[in-house]
Amino acid sequence: MTEHPDDLLHIASCHTCRDRFTADNVVNLNGDRQREPERMREFLETARRLERERDGVEDVVARLLRSTPVSEWSSLADERELHSSAAVEQLIEEVRKRAEKIPLEALTLADVATIISETLPTNSYPPVVLAQLRASAWKERAQALRYLGRVDDALAAIETAEERLGHFASATFDRGVVFLTKSRILHQLGRTAEAYSLLRECRQIFRDHGDAKLLLCAGIIEGASLFDDNRIAEADALFTELLEVARSARDAESQARIENNLAYCATGLGDYRRANVHFSNGIALFYDLGLLAEAMRAKWGAGRVLVGKGQINAGLAYLRDARRAFLENSMMEDAVMCGVEIIQVLVERGDAEPARELAHHVASDVQSTQLGARAVAALRQLEEAVADGGTDLGPQVRDVHAYLESLRQGISV
After folding, report:
1. Domain parsing of the chain, residue ranges
2. For residues 103 and 106, what is the distance between their CA atoms, to the nearest angstrom?
3. DSSP for 89-126?
4. What is the model's pTM?
5. What whole-number distance in Å separates Cα of residue 4 and Cα of residue 17?
6. Residue 154 contacts residue 20 (beta carbons within 8 Å)
């Protein structure tokens, strides 16, 4: 949900944010003026209390996670040290760290966060603070379930998050954050019209609140969904619009991702000249930001796309640059996989000598990876097969690539 909406000075000066801490979320600014000093004291006391709770809570949560076996994490719901708003916030951060890579752990912690948030006494915090906290916990539970492929359960969780905010008129922004996740779940369920409607609503909410970062996030999700649904021209138009928003907001990272997405759209529309321009812009921005892994993988993706569309020379140039960068940065698994893809392209167009030379290098490179002895053997066999020539190399290279990819799925990165 929102980051630290209880900033002391901001609450003290902003009527809108002070409204978020009232029981009914409505303050009559034209009447009842005599209550303003009292309300100010209430807001500031709540804010100070939340700040005190946050002091040291990161260490408390980290200590409990270290000292408790993962199999017993569900028991943390009974830990009194975690029964506070700040502790639930920190648990939610731990959920987010694990959601993509270790979704089962994320789900366990999300369950703990939802249980604690739902059992906090109703008089422990202002009603809207409890609602935001509970909605945030349920939203992260929905995300973990989505990553585990339990999409129906994810929908039930995100609808609970939405319901927790339902009685608070000023929680529009928080609902927008919940709707972002709900839209992705609806899209996975094939309810695309509802998903797109929610995403458009999200963009309007974030535009109204002046939050360019989340406006861009909602737009990128919508554009990616349009692309996946083969509505490439619509995706292209949306990403073009978002690029100007990112530039105006000076959000270089979003700009880089949008440039990369525009390149994929241009490729899908057959405009390879524009695709090359956008790929180059995106890669340059990633490098400027110091996001080297993103830049290298953008090059790899550009090469794959252009080769797939028949732009072989342009695609090979990107793939070779990506492989060189992977090697320079000791990203050996990526270097090997990229190398096998280059071998496949060379073999398919009959460039036997460079394919043989590269096969030799890749077979040596794989020994520096975590892919194991069987991967080394597979690359040695491929090297021998390419060296011997033959008419059936294309399928063999593809088989080796698929095999290495399956091994790579088990590597922690």
Report:
1. 1-168, 330-413
2. 5
3. HHHHHHHHHHTTT-HHHHHHHHHHHHHHHHHS-TTSS-
4. 0.69
5. 11
6. no
Residue 74 main-chain phi, psi, to 5 deg:
-60, -25
Q: Is 248 exposed, middle or buried (0-12, 13-18, 19+ CB in 10 A)?
A: exposed
User: Could you report the per-residue pLDDT of 48-61, keeping only the tens digit for each?
Assistant: 767 777 878 899 99
Instruction: List the structure tokens of 326.
Output: 């992977």
* CB contact at 8 A, 61 and 87: yes
Rounded Cα gap, residues 133 and 44, in angstroms:
19
Angle at which helix 252-268 crosses helix 292-308, to 10 degrees, equals 10
Q: CA 262 to CA 252: how far, in whole Å?
A: 15
For 146, residues 6+ apart whose C-beta sits below 8 A from its C-beta are: 154, 181, 184, 185, 188
Report pLDDT digits (tens) over 332-372.
Answer: 878 888 888 888 888 888 887 888 888 878 777 776 666 66
* Tokens read off for 336: 């090997």
Kindly give, in sequence order, each residue whose CB lies less than 8 Å from that of residue 107, ignoring residues fewer than 6 positions away.
Answer: 141, 144, 145, 148
Residues in Cβ contact with 329 at an 8 Å cutoff, skipping those fewer than 6 apart: 292, 293, 296
